[in-house]
């Protein structure tokens, strides 16, 4: 991630899709790679911090996490594939995943893969929209960093993004649940991105691509 840390020419707009509890989850050692990265950036470089998290339990923790950053904007929202064409959706979680339910997903199978088919799933009903619709509605400038960690549907969301409608300088996404990574590489290459290395995730589960020449 050194390339991203040394970059100085961005718009100052940082977006995290799937923010969880920020750096306030004890089970992750109070760490979150996106949060750590942005909080180390000189404040004059930060214009907007856009945080999208569907799990209502985590919203108060995000407010606490970013309380010293007036640039932070929190959206309680599920990002979904375009083909779903719904305004609300079920967000499933296993009670064993408490307290922050970081594996919560609109994909039941993703939760069951972690906690077993016998887990008695519970759910929230959450507002939802496709990623392009969200960005076009809320961001009117270039995006310096788009960080994506959407439990179980990362591939579908990446393949949905129309990179011709908005400018992203750096794109970091969780790759460990993506089966067809070649299709993702092909899409990003055609959109003008180059692979750099590991992204913002502190566990090393993200890939980072740059659209700068």
Q: What spatial form do the alpha-carbon principal axes imply?
A: globular
In percent, how much strand structure appears in the residues?
Answer: 25-35%
Q: How would you name the CATH homologous superfamily?
A: Vaccinia Virus protein VP39
- CATH fold-level label: Rossmann fold
Q: Spans of 5+ residues with little confidence (pLDDT < 50)?
A: none
> How would you characterize the largest beta sheet?
7 strands, mixed
Instruction: Give the helix/strand class.
Output: alpha/beta
How would the blueprint of this fold be written?
Elements: H1 2-6, E1 13-17, H2 33-40, E2 48-53, H3 59-65, E3 72-76, E4 78-79, E5 88-93, H4 108-115, E6 122-129, H5 131-138, E7 143-148, H6 154-160, E8 168-174, H7 181-190, E9 194-198, E10 206-210
Parallel strand pairs: 1-2, 1-7, 2-3, 4-6, 7-8
Antiparallel strand pairs: 5-6, 8-10, 9-10
Tell me what the structure shows.
This protein has 213 residues and is of the alpha/beta class. The protein has one domain (2-82, 131-210): 3-Layer(aba) Sandwich (Rossmann fold). 25% of the residues lie in helices and 26% in strands. It has 7 helices and 10 strands. The protein has helices at residues 2-6, 33-40, 59-65, 108-115, 131-138, 154-160, 181-190, and strands at 13-17, 48-53, 72-76, 78-79, 88-93, 122-129, 143-148, 168-174, 194-198, 206-210. Strand 7, helix 6 (154-160) and strand 8 form a beta-alpha-beta unit. The model has no long low-confidence stretch (mean pLDDT 93).
Any key phrases for this structure?
single chain, 213 residues, Rossmann fold, 26% strand
């Amino acid at each position: 991630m050194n390339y991203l840390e040394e970059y100085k020419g961005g718009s100052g707009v940082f977006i995290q899709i799937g923010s969880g509890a920020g750096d306030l989850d004890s089970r992750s050692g109070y760490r979150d790679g996106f949060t750590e990265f942005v909080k180390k950036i000189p404040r004059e470089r930060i214009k907007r911090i856009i945080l999208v998290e569907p799990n209502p339990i985590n919203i108060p923790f995000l407010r606490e996490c970013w309380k010293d950053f007036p640039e932070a904007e929190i959206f309680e929202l599920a990002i979904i594939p375009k083909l779903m064409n719904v305004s609300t959706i079920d967000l499933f979680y296993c009670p064993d995943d408490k307290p922050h339910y970081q594996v919560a997903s609109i994909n039941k199978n993703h939760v069951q893969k972690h906690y077993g088919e016998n887990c008695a799933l519970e759910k929230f009903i959450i507002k939802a929209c496709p990623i392009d619709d969200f960005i076009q509605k809320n961001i009117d400038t270039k995006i310096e960093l788009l960080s994506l960690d959407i439990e179980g549907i990362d591939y579908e969301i990446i393949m949905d993004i129309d990179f011709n409608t908005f400018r992203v300088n750096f794109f970091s996404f969780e790759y460990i649940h993506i089966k067809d990574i070649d299709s993702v590489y092909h899409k990003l290459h055609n959109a003008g991105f180059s692979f750099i290395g590991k992204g913002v995730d502190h566990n090393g589960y993200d890939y980072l691509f740059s659209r700068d020449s």
